[in-house]
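Example protein was shown:

_____
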Amino acid sequence: IDGSTVKAGVMLFDLSDPVHPAQVDTTSAAAPVIVEPCEVTAQFNAQTLSCNTSLPQLSPAIVLQPAGASVGDPSSVFRTRPLKDDTDYAVVLTDAIKDKAGHSLGAGTVAKIVRFQNPLIVGGHSAMQGIDDATAASLEKMRKQLPPVLTAPGVDASKVVMAYTFHTQSE
């Protein structure tokens, strides 16, 4: 993944109000999340524990680092704050994220499944062949949570390649 394209293609939403998801800042200096810290890109030098910004920003993963520090941004330890406790969040990844050849990411199987209109669980069992009940139940929860996110202001659903939810721990 071209790490330099990740910030433009990632959105984070607070689902405290599931009908009206609130977009969480991921780009400003005051953001509670560091998107694509240099520690996961090819820029990081483990010997010097520093970032070399002259190297390409290639990454094997898309990383959102809440409440932490980044060698690439020494002030981050002082400005990042934890996400809310015991709260659901949604992450939206768009086709603005490119691979190292400059091609947009494409939607995978899970991204397509969580957009299905029909329930993934029927009578307590998976309605999909090859997907176990527990996995189907997790995907169903996401499937139900994502429609307000995909229609939220600033989200172009036709450009979404992946969306998923997660829940933060309580104290």
